[in-house]
Fold this protein.
Amino acid sequence: MEVLEKIQKQVDSAAIVIYMKGTPQFPQCGFSARASQTLASTGVEFAYVNIFEDQEVFQSLPDFADWPTFPQIYFNSELVGGGDIIIEMAEQDTLKDAMQEAVEKYNS
């Protein structure tokens, strides 16, 4: 399987997926830590991919959605953006609703 197909399967596998450095329990950079903590603070379930566990994904993900940095957050297979966007959504009180909508859409 080609790496871009693998990434597509990963983003299709859950309503919300964050590609991050490390895991939500053990983030390995500040941006990934803040983004995963912000997602977790909503109480809405999300999946994660530790980009350090697969060098092909790490190398190819920036090309997948033309987004050069990590973390990358996807709702229903579409790139929402990075940690700054998620944090801004949380500050505007729109993140939890957007995540819940993504889960409802995914499960329907």
Remarks:
- The chain has one domain: 3-84.
